[in-house]
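Chain X:
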Amino acid sequence: MQATMTRDEAKADRQATGRDNPPVSKEAQTRPFGGSALQALYSTKKSHIKDAHDDLRFFGKFCGCDTPEQIENLLVGPDSTKEKTQRLVASYRDHLASRDMAYGTINRRLAAIRTLVRLAKFVGAVTWEIDVSAGPKTKRRDTRGVSKQSLKVADRMSDDTPRARRDRAIVTLAHHAQLKRADVVKLMLEHYDPDPLNPSIEVAGYKMALTKKVKSSLDAWVEVRGFKSGSLFTRLDDKTTPMTQDEIIVLVRSDSILGDS
């Protein structure tokens, strides 16, 4: 008995084959395929199927298949079995999940494979289908930038401690340049140009102009940090150790802005 699909998986399958329509056109249903699921797939005129072609190419790269025919032979060829294909597709699913792909993307790519196997059954190449799911939906990592509340708190900070200077510089720069925390921890002192007329900072090979407010906060932190080459934002107890991404996210999510590092 085929396993019951979740609502998201059923939606992905409908998008791959066309909502509430047969998986192939009427013309395709009367055409002799010679047992080829690919011919059945390519004979469809639905726009959703074109996306399935691209998704199958990604699967082919994972398996080392150079042509669509090799993909078909691997999944539903003479030597294939339901158990072998299920294991292969499950391994592909785990590979996609390890790359932190969105749940919907994983679901769509698996739906393309399920569609090909379903068409293979339709043309008589196999007698089975696969039911590999994308797994439970998981919460994705927090990718939001600096909150407006954090920026307001940074503006109100009146103390002039080293920690306050550093945290204020991080918050104002990240908000101004719309930086991710990964970008912040990669910044080096030499990336910052404190030119009085045209201050800038280099991010991922691109120079970004800075406002007077951002320059002022960076200058105040660099005065405490020192001018030794290395990471722009470091721990307070060791000016040679760069801050981590986890420390940055704790800092910008804190209501008081200040981190403990």
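Chain Y:
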Amino acid sequence: MVLIIFFVIIFFIDLDHYIIPDELTFPLMLIGFIKSFDPNLNLNLFPNYLDSLIGGALGYILIWGLITLYLRIRNKEGMGLGDAKLLSAIGFWFGWYSIPYVIFLSLQKLHQSFLLCFHQLEQNLFDLHHLCRL
């Protein structure tokens, strides 16, 4: 429940201000790591402390690497470290094996968004072409 509340708050802040505050991601990371020490933990859903630590590090390093690569290629910042910290928090909560799934689902959603935009652009061009023929 805590995770969902944090994600909803982060979603609306990011939507309005294009930032993911450290005040929200750091507690998520800390709670995600601390809960991995719980002896009554459901290990089918949540990782042990080692998988949690690896997941947090892997999530951060992957996004940080993309940010650094984009900065070197384009000489401008494409995304902030808030995204890296958020993926790190997901890694702390669900372990290193959740990171590929999150990235895959994100890329799939991005692909769907591009297809929708291109379809709408194609429809608008078709309508414009049709209008010019009249």
